[in-house]
Design the sequence.
């Protein structure tokens, strides 16, 4: 599918093709004056086919892919090539509301100057792999091979957390980042609680604000001791395309274990109130594991800028610590100190799904191995067997070996599942961590693309589709014109053939030969009377000449 960047690019693309079409049409007109009806029709069909081939790049459906922040994504080039045929493949990226196209690859090599180059790679079939995606990765991706383009739109769902104007409350903002950023219809983004009840309006615990474009805000009163799960869903034609969860954690005065997926935002509460409105008497300390030294991340209410995570840390007005876009490296223990005394002891555990090896993605009938890993503070505490399980999209636990999978067991806090990829049969697999038979955290893996459903929809009408529709109308008119012209020419040829007069079929009579020297000859007489006859022949007037013949009989 060809991507048209703007009207100028479209003009540049279509003008030479129209010139070719007009030139061929002119040549065809000259040719039509000399050739037979069959050759005329063949030439017209050739013209139509050439125009259709030139126009194929701007027709067809857009592919839309939906992902969450922190996941890996594979964007199919659609060329059906192998790694030794990717030298002429170029990947481009158009970001929302950005007029400049970023070149990601040249001759299969990742451009080091591109944003997020360290997270990019090219698969064995020329597809583009992006790891640990962020909302900035949303947009239109173009796989270009010569004059052929394949376009995929990457839409990313993200939940961000900020402090609310409501005292003690927080705002959860669910946003869909896409190429058409800011064009989502009303009620496309909804919130649900842990009982799967849709949230709307306002009550003593929450308030759902009106959706603005592609952002929906849920204000939650943050109550100590209560951990609550909220789910944001994006709908298209009343069907869910992508969802994301956020667990809002309270504090009960003892060490709390928090569970989050890689890529999420986390708010770590400091329960005791600071005597200072600026949290100047608050320190936050981080310890990766029991044997590591504690690192001060926040001192006197201010984030230490020398910290490797400084750009992702923030201190709220109630002195809680906000960590954005968490990674496995953020797992560990966090201590909130009020006047140098420990107030909150929080242990952050992270869950992630990765492939082994990282660059392998299933194609055709190949397989991919998935690793579901729980990162925790104290690695000496082993995960119990069967505490990390896999489930399919029907909610059935996967054990042993099936047609589409092989469960390879759990080692400590890592569970391994091999997915037997089958073309056009993409599936979702869910990894869950259980403790005391209670699900603490889960994560999903979608096997490549779901081309039959979630990747072929759009919440707005694409300009490319409009252009394709116009071209389709033009092609229909051309076909109708060719058929009418063919019928007109054939009718004219028939009239020319019928332009003579009608004559009755002559009758033939044999006569006996006369005796004499010419008795060896046989004569036939032609009776051209105008008597009624059932047979007629048609000849042109100027060709009505009679020829006499004698036949010598041996």
Sequence:
């Amino acid at each position: 599918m060809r991507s048209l960047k703007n009207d100028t690019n479209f003009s540049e693309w279509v003008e030479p093709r129209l010139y070719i079409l007009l030139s061929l049409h002119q040549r065809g007109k000259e040719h039509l004056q000399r050739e037979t009806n069959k050759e005329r029709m063949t030439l017209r069909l050739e013209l139509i086919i050439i125009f259709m081939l030139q126009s194929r790049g701007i027709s067809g459906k857009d592919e839309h892919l939906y992902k969450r922040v922190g996941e890996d994504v594979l964007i199919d080039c659609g060329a059906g090539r192998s790694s030794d045929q990717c030298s002429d493949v170029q990947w481009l990226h158009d970001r929302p509301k950005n007029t400049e196209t970023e070149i990601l690859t040249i001759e299969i090599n990742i451009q080091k100057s591109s944003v997020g180059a360290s997270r990019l790679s090219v698969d064995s079939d020329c597809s583009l792999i992006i790891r640990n995606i962020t909302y900035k990765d949303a947009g239109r991706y173009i796989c270009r091979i010569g004059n052929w383009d394949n376009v995929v739109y990457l839409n990313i769902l993200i939940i961000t957390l900020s402090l609310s104007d409501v005292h003690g409350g927080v705002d959860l903002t669910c946003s869909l980042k896409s190429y058409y950023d800011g064009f989502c219809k009303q009620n496309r983004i909804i919130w649900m609680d842990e009982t799967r009840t849709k949230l709307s309006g306002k009550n003593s615990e929450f308030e759902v604000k009106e959706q603005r474009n592609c952002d929906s805000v849920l204000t939650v009163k943050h109550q100590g001791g209560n951990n609550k799960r909220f789910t944001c869903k994006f709908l298209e034609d009343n069907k869910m395309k992508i969802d994301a969860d956020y667990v809002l954690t309270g504090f009960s005065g003892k060490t709390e274990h928090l569970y989050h997926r890689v890529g999420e935002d986390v708010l770590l509460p400091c329960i005791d109130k600071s005597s200072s409105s600026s949290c100047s008497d608050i320190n936050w300390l981080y310890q990766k594991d029991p044997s590591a030294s504690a690192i001060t991340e926040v001192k006197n209410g201010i984030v230490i800028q020398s910290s490797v995570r400084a750009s992702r840390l923030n201190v709220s007005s109630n002195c809680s610590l906000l960590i954005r876009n968490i990674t496995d490296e953020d797992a560990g223990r966090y201590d909130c100190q009020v006047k140098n005394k420990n107030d909150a002891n929080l242990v952050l555990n992270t869950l992630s799904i990765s492939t082994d090896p990282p660059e392998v993605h299933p194609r055709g009938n190949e397989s991919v191995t998935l690793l579901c890993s729980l990162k925790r503070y104290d690695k000496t505490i082993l995960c119990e067997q069967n505490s990390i399980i896999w489930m399919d999209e029907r909610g059935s636990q996967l054990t042993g070996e099936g047609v589409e999978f092989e469960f390879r067991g759990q080692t400590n806090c890592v569970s391994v599942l091999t997915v037997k990829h089958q073309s056009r049969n993409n599936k979702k697999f869910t990894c869950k961590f259980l403790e005391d038979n209670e699900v603490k955290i889960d994560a999903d893996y979608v096997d490549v693309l779901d081309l039959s459903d979630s990747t072929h929809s759009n919440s707005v009408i694409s300009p490319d589709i409009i252009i394709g529709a116009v071209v389709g109308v033009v092609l229909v008119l051309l076909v109708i014109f060719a058929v009418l012209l063919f019928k007109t020419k054939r009718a004219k040829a028939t009239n020319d053939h019928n332009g003579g007069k009608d004559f009755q079929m002559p009758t033939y009579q044999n006569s006996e030969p006369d005796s004499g020297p010419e008795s060896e000859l046989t004569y036939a007489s032609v009776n051209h009377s105008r008597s009624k006859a059932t047979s007629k022949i048609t000849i042109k007037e100027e060709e009505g000449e009679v020829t006499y013949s004698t036949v010598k009989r041996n």
Residues 33 and 408 are 74 Å apart (CA to CA).
